[in-house]
Task: inverse folding
């Protein structure tokens, strides 16, 4: 039960940190309109190991603006190269594409693309039965701008943004919780995303995420997770904040050596 308590504390902590950042951001920017949405994300995380140190990675995320998966929200593709530092630490870098659709209670005027380059440091730790994973990521973003002329919205070049992300994940096997399922586990994680340098409206806070999920290991190289994520986004330049209740389904696969 102490392990379960730690996971719940992590989830609550992630929500509290995100909430404090949101409160500060909203207190220092003009009044915003709140939009609440229900989303579903289908995610694939693939890694192909070339040797003991080097790997190729690919994330593909199909994000939908409803639970049935009928309305597009966003498509994210994130290929990259990974390098094992030893002791479970990992360096990574690559490119990402995000195509955002018109969706939700406060939709954008038109779909828009985004191109990114990214760098990452990830490292593990352990506290008793709880395995921790910590990830720091920076992103250089070229976000598509939308211009409206005579009532018609269209893509009009790109605005450069720089963003930093910090994620912490805690995972515990079901057996440590007294459940006799050797392949099952429970995981909780939180992530905070902030603007660095020039940003819309001069804001620092971008978004926060907090999740609680159940997982199943089919083999040492294949596992799946399903659960709930709460995502809060403070959209720059639009005076809109999103609170998104999200069903997340994820598959993790490793191939190669």
Result:
């Amino acid at each position: 039960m102490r392990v379960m308590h730690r996971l719940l504390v992590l989830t609550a902590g992630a929500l509290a940190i995100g909430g404090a950042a949101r409160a500060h951001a909203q207190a220092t920017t003009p009044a915003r309109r709140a939009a609440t949405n229900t989303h579903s994300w289908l995610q694939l995380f693939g890694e192909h190991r070339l040797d003991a140190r080097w790997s190729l990675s690919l994330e593909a995320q199909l994000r939908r603006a409803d639970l049935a998966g009928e309305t597009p929200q966003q498509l994210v593709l994130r290929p990259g190269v990974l390098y094992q530092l030893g002791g479970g630490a990992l360096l990574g870098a690559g490119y990402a594409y995000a195509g955002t659709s018109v969706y939700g209670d406060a939709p954008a005027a038109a779909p828009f693309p985004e191109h990114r380059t990214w760098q990452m440091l990830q490292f593990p730790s352990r506290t008793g039965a709880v395995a921790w994973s910590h990830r720091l990521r920076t992103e250089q973003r070229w976000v598509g701008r939308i211009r409206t002329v005579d009532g018609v919205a269209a893509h009009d070049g790109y605005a450069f943004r720089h963003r930093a992300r910090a994620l912490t994940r805690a995972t515990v096997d079901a057996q440590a919780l007294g459940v006799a399922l050797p392949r099952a586990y429970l995981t909780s994680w939180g992530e905070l995303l902030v603007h660095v340098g020039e940003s819309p409206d001069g804001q620092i806070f971008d978004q926060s995420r907090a999740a609680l999920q159940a997982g199943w290991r089919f083999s040492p190289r294949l596992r799946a997770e399903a659960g709930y994520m709460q995502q809060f986004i403070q959209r720059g330049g639009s005076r809109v904040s999103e609170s998104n209740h999200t069903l997340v389904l994820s598959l993790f696969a490793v191939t190669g050596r």
Observations:
- The first helix runs from residue 2 to 27.
- The mean pLDDT is 88.
- The CA atoms of residues 146 and 155 lie 5 Å apart.
